[in-house]
Amino acid sequence: MTLPILGWQGLVVLVVFGVSLLIATYSTYAERVIAAFLQDRVGPDRAGPFGLLQPLADAVKLFTKEEFFPAGANRALFVFGPCLAMVTALMSSAVIPFGNVLQFGETAIHLQGIEINVGMLYVFGMVSLGVYGIMIGGWASNNKFSLLGAIRAASQNISYEIAMGLALIAVLMISNTLSLREITFQQTSEAPFVWNDIFNWNVMKQPLGFIIFIVCAFAETNRTPFDLPECETELIGGYHTEYSSMKMGLYLFAEYINVFVASAVMSVLYFGGFNFPFQAELRNWLVSSQGLELVTAQNIITILGVVGLFTKIFSFIFFFMWVRWTLPRFRYDQLMRLGWTILIPLAIFNIMLTGGLITFGVIK
Amino acid sequence: MESLSKRAKVLEKKPMTLAERAYLPAIFQGLTITMRHFFRAATKKQVTVRYPDETRPFSPVFRGLHVLKRDEAGRERCTACGLCAVACPAEAITMVAGERKKGEENLYREEKYAISYEINMLRCIFCGLCEEACPKAAVYLQADKMAPPRFERDEFIYGKDRLVEPVTPDNRSKRGIQLTPEQADKLRSQLA
């Protein structure tokens, strides 16, 4: 990699970083508006047009709040917890391919923070590390409710990571690669028919795996109906009970970034990533009818692909919020029973089913 | 055990079917319900009243904040007879009577007037008995104003400065408690 290319990739990383933060910021706003609409209310509409400046007002509020340390808390770990949660949440978005290659003469810019051939493992590792932020924060608070929340978070994440990994294995059996970029390219279709485009998406080959994966994604991001680590009715807020000011804000931010990353991973793994229907036709049309060069046409397709991927991501984020304001919280034993006795056997069955289908050549 | 009312229903606790145990059908049912509400809130007119910007319409017979009226010439009507204070079941009204001096005929209609007139809005129950008792048609409960919330208790004791109607007619309450004939007809038809 030459130096200018490194510079461009650094820029991409910065943009991904900024976009993650921006999406997390406006997720708080979206959450409140969607919650309000689902409950026949109005939602925030005071700060700016349609309340669009509400996240800024919230940020100012969080920054000016008192920095509080509970008695007997381990100060260093108390600060370290939210930082770790935030860092791991942000780091997991690095390997997600947000778009194809932008070609400007000799320079080719990959719209992806960094391409590594074990991308999916990296995401899994980061997500697993994310629970340490919650654990450390909950333990360092010296508060029984925080500790309970932290313990719940740990056991819940470990339980659901198994089912999630098993659901993922079925995808990897089809794709034979861990690279998210490769998985995306395998879902590209050049056939001139829209249904082919969509049927090439992994969700068509792995419907059961997708359902298992999305349920586990809800549990991994600690969202309702699996938000037992927070659980404001029983645990007053769980692991962030004792947190105030921007440390609290970091936890909330980390949760929304996790939702964003989970949505992005699901879009890439199951919904074709930056592929969108009719892309091959559109590129051919741009070249043949509009007289554009192939490189320019491909760049346009790439940019549209980024738009397409973000449409998918936003749909998933909306779905996360929609479910949150529809379903009540699971009880803890129900959560564990669902994870261990339903999802894990289902995921193993899905692996065997996929293996059988691959053996008999139904899917490849 | 013998049922007293004979209305008790025996409910069987059936084991859940496979569809019920799979959660997903019930979840999708719930999701469609909330989505219907989402579109209703997004498209139809919302029931929320954005309070400081808009207020709910008051009933024409609403009894709100008191006003001490002036007559046609802009003189205070109150003669400090004290009947309102006597009529008040909450004992919210106090007043000090004074004699009108020479040259004050354009300020007070009667020879006796209220030097101070105070209503404690925390005591007041807005029953309107003061209004009924007043022989000079001086005190009215406005139909379109309420005593606003305040931080201090003493701010709720309204003196003459806040009770007496302003001299300029523009600032006066647009609707007193007295109904116009049209309003009265409308109200009668509503009640019928």
UniProtKB/TrEMBL annotation, chain A:
Matching PROSITE patterns, A to Z?
COMPLEX1_ND1_1, COMPLEX1_ND1_2
Question: Taxonomically, which superkingdom?
Answer: Bacteria
What membrane topology is annotated for this entry?
A: Multi-pass membrane protein
Coiled coil feature spans: none
Q: What is its EC number?
A: 7.1.1.-
**What are the record keywords, sorted?**
Cell membrane, Membrane, NAD, Quinone, Translocase, Transmembrane, Transmembrane helix, Ubiquinone
The record's catalysed reaction(s) read:
a quinone + NADH + 5 H(+)(in) = a quinol + NAD(+) + 4 H(+)(out)
List where the protein spans the membrane. 6-29, 77-99, 119-140, 160-178, 256-280, 300-323, 335-363
Choose any GO biological process term that the UniProt entry carries and state it: aerobic respiration
Q: Does the keyword Coiled coil apply?
A: no
Location of the protein in the cell = Cell membrane; Membrane
Recorded hits in Pfam families, A to Z, give:
NADHdh (PF00146)
Q: Name one GO cellular component term.
A: plasma membrane
Q: Does the record's keyword annotation contain Membrane?
A: yes
Q: How does it assemble?
A: NDH-1 is composed of 14 different subunits. Subunits NuoA, H, J, K, L, M, N constitute the membrane sector of the complex.
Q: Which NCBIfam families match?
A: PRK06076.1-2
Q: What does this protein do?
A: NDH-1 shuttles electrons from NADH, via FMN and iron-sulfur (Fe-S) centers, to quinones in the respiratory chain. The immediate electron acceptor for the enzyme in this species is believed to be ubiquinone. Couples the redox reaction to proton translocation (for every two electrons transferred, four hydrogen ions are translocated across the cytoplasmic membrane), and thus conserves the redox energy in a proton gradient. This subunit may bind ubiquinone.
- Protein name (Swiss-Prot/TrEMBL): NADH-quinone oxidoreductase subunit H
From TrEMBL, chain B:
List ligand-binding residues for [4Fe-4S] cluster 1.
C78, C81, C84, C134
Q: What is its main location?
A: membrane
Q: Which SUPFAM superfamilies match?
A: 4Fe-4S ferredoxins
Q: State whether keyword NAD applies.
A: yes
- Tell me a GO biological process for this protein: aerobic respiration
Task: Give the superkingdom in one word.
Answer: Bacteria
* Location in or out of the cell: Cell membrane
Identify the keywords attached in UniProt to this record, alphabetized.
4Fe-4S, Cell membrane, Iron, Iron-sulfur, Membrane, Metal-binding, NAD, Quinone, Repeat, Translocase, Ubiquinone
Where is the signal peptide, in residue numbers? none
Q: Where is the composition biased (Basic and acidic residues)?
A: 183-192
Q: Where is this region: Disordered?
A: 167-192
User: Known PANTHER family for this protein?
Assistant: NADH DEHYDROGENASE [UBIQUINONE] IRON-SULFUR PROTEIN 8, MITOCHONDRIAL, NADH DEHYDROGENASE UBIQUINONE IRON-SULFUR PROTEIN 8, MITOCHONDRIAL
Q: What is the protein's known function?
A: NDH-1 shuttles electrons from NADH, via FMN and iron-sulfur (Fe-S) centers, to quinones in the respiratory chain. The immediate electron acceptor for the enzyme in this species is believed to be ubiquinone. Couples the redox reaction to proton translocation (for every two electrons transferred, four hydrogen ions are translocated across the cytoplasmic membrane), and thus conserves the redox energy in a proton gradient.
Q: How does it assemble?
A: NDH-1 is composed of 14 different subunits. Subunits NuoA, H, J, K, L, M, N constitute the membrane sector of the complex.
This chain belongs to which protein, by name?
NADH-quinone oxidoreductase subunit I
- According to its UniProt entry, this protein's organism is Hymenobacter arizonensis (Siccationidurans arizonensis)
